[in-house]
Write a structure and sequence with these properties.
By secondary structure, the chain is an alpha+beta fold. It folds into 2 domains: about 1-90; about 110-335, Bira Bifunctional Protein, Domain 2 (BirA Bifunctional Protein, domain 2, 2-Layer Sandwich), CATH 3.30.930.10. The protein contains 11 helices and 9 strands. Strands 1-4-5-9-8-7-6 form a 7-stranded mixed beta sheet, with helices on both faces. A two-stranded antiparallel sheet has the order 2-3. Helix 1 runs antiparallel to helix 2 (about 25-35), helix 2 runs antiparallel to helix 4 and helix 5 (about 110-125) crosses helix 10 (about 310-320). Bound molecules: 3,4-dihydroxyphenylalanine. 3,4-dihydroxyphenylalanine (DAH) binds near residues 212 and 308.
Length: about 350
């Protein structure tokens, strides 16, 4: 009788389940008896030889055997699991007082490092930091800086306008105006910050960083400006660096100049960085225009000043020999980790 065979297999399997020493062994037994190639399903193939009257009894026996085995399996599995867990817990002792694996330390961003270093160099000669908002009024950005209404910098193509009166500041020079109007001279001010212009390619980013310098005192001359920026360049790039001043034009300074320093990468011999001229431009500067002082209610016969502005990305590019401005903003750790200090 097939029914007897079914029951025999069931009893044999139950016995085997009982003797299983691990969940793995138990599972293998389950596959052996109940799996697709297992001994119980194999009997089903003989069903076709069974008489029609006997078939329902057979089916019933088969279902009961399967149910019994499934139930037994779950029961033994539960017991074995519990035993295995207790064993593991007693074997694997965890010392909760041990320190965990160290977390990876972050690195300073090169832009932040250049800001810090410039501020440090100037603070040694008495400068301090002032700031201003990134969304600025037209007057702070342009008008009070003696930039006339028809000046190209005011063009929508250069400046991101928010409305008629406001734009993202295109330079840090409005920090000069904020300081002139809110504090009393003398001033030895640095204005670091992010600036925005409609420009984007290998050497231009729509968002970049500048640092502004403003000195207002009695008897300030071009010689003071030159001495200050020469001191800065030799501190920042190295003692052997030379500086030169070329006449230039900015509406907010008179006279105005552009500052170059001997290329730190090739020591002035000429390389790709300096376009084989031996010199790299590091910023603009000049004596504060009398109109800028008077637009902020300072008596320009009593006070004089000088100002300068430098691009931070540019300084980092020159100092570290970086080829593409976009590297600063891509958050690629392989680049950023090289600036760990
Ligand atoms: N604001 C100028 C620019 O963004 C840079 C500059 C030039 C700032 C001369 C100054 C200065 O303070 O005196 O191009």
């Amino acid at each position: 009788m097939l029914k007897n065979q079914i029951n025999e297999i069931r009893d044999e399997a139950l016995q085997a389940f009982k003797g299983a020493a691990s969940t793995k062994e138990l599972y293998d037994l389950k596959v052996k008896y109940l799996g697709r190639q297992g001994s119980l399903p194999a009997i089903m193939k003989k069903m076709k030889d069974v008489s029609p009257e006997e078939r329902p009894l057979m089916g019933q026996a088969m279902n009961q055997a399967k149910d019994a085995l499934e139930t037994a399996y779950l029961k033994f599995e539960e017991e074995l699991k519990r035993g295995e867990l207790t064993k593991r817990l007693s074997e694997e002792k965890l010392d909760m007082t041990l320190p965990g694996p160290p977390s990876k330390l972050g690195a300073h961003h090169p832009i932040e490092m250049v800001f810090d270093e410039i501020i440090d160099i100037f603070s040694r000669i008495g400068y301090y930091v002032r700031s201003g908002p990134m969304i600025e009024t037209d007057d702070h950005n342009f008008g009070a800086l003696n930039i006339p209404p028809e000046h190209p910098a005011r063009d929508m193509q250069d400046t991101f306008y928010i409305d008629e009166e406001h734009s993202l500041r295109p330079h840090t020079s409005p920090i000069q105006i904020r300081t002139l109007r809110s504090e009393k001279p003398p001033f030895y001010v640095l204005g670091p910050g992010g600036v925005f212009r409609c420009d984007s390619d290998v050497s231009h980013s729509p968002m970049f960083h500048q640092i502004e310098g403003l000195v207002v005192d009695k008897k300030v001359s071009m010689a003071d400006l030159k001495g200050t920026l020469s001191y800065f360049a030799s501190e920042f790039f190295g003692k052997s660096i030379k500086t030169r001043f070329r006449p230039s034009f900015f509406p907010f300074t008179e006279p105005s100049a552009e500052v170059d320093c001997s290329c730190p990468l090739c020591n002035g011999k000429g390389c790709r960085m300096c376009g084989h001229t031996g010199w790299v431009e590091i910023g603009g500067c000049g004596l504060v225009h009398p109109n800028v002082l008077s637009a902020s209610d300072l008596d320009n016969s009593e006070w004089q000043g000088f100002a300068f502005g430098m691009g931070i990305e540019r300084m980092a590019i020159i100092k570290y020999g970086i080829s593409d401005i976009r590297l600063f903003y891509e958050n690629d750790n392989r680049f950023l980790e090289q600036f760990r200090r």
